[in-house]
Amino acid sequence: MKQKTWPDRSDGVRFTAFPLSKPNDNEENIILSRRSKIGSKPSLSPTDGPDFSALPFDILTKIAASFNFPNLLAASLVCRSWRDALRPLREAMMLLRYGKRFKHGRGGVRRNLDKALDSFLKGAARGSTLAMVDAGLIYWERGLKEEAIALYQKAAALGDPAGQCNLGISYLHAQPQNHKEAVKWLHQASIGGYTRAQYQLALCLHQGLGVHRNLYEAAKWYLKAAEGGYVRAMYNASLCYSSVVGLSQSRRQARKWMRRAADRGHSKA
Length: 269
Prior knowledge:
By secondary structure, the chain is mainly alpha-helical. The chain has 14 helices and no strands. InterPro entries: F-box-like_dom_sf (IPR036047), F-box_dom (IPR001810), F-box_motif (IPR053301), Sel1-like (IPR006597), TPR-like_helical_dom_sf (IPR011990).
């Protein structure tokens, strides 16, 4: 597949979703019951520590909306109140798992995007931003961009980096385009360490899309994304070092990043 790297107005990154852990069907109930029986301790009195159960359910579910299964499971073990509050999100994780099976034709089922979308939407209705993003991906691929953007907006507002990144990319490609909103959400995901967003933000800064053209800032974000393992950013960071674009010329650094890009399969490196 041909890769676009150095800034081009048609350049874009395929929307992405966080990978999902794959627990066994009964893993949640088994682990929760096992951990509640083994090593259980008497509950602490209010003077011994904070009362976690006092946290309102709506705030807790918003905080945990972007959790993956291991983190959600760990949070469910804090106290009974959290376990009850997070039940819809644990159900959403199961629905997300089924949806990915249908989307990719894994786990003994045939690929079926309609069933995948149905599972993702049910997971999204239970508050999972991961499910919102996956449902948005299918909507976007089907040309239903308004529906996709609506889901990305919900996920982004709840702090999901993939949702923020996809929302930013959506604003770059939707009609009409909204470059300022794109930069806003790409920056939000970038400061959270999301490498695809960092690369896309660097492209916007390099081209002057939605923001004043700033080669220094562009190079900085290329380098951050490269250090985070994003291959296209490695290639562009090498070009920045060799062409003196926002970075001091360094043949050694240019060779290093070009070599890393090549080792990871970049077609132009």
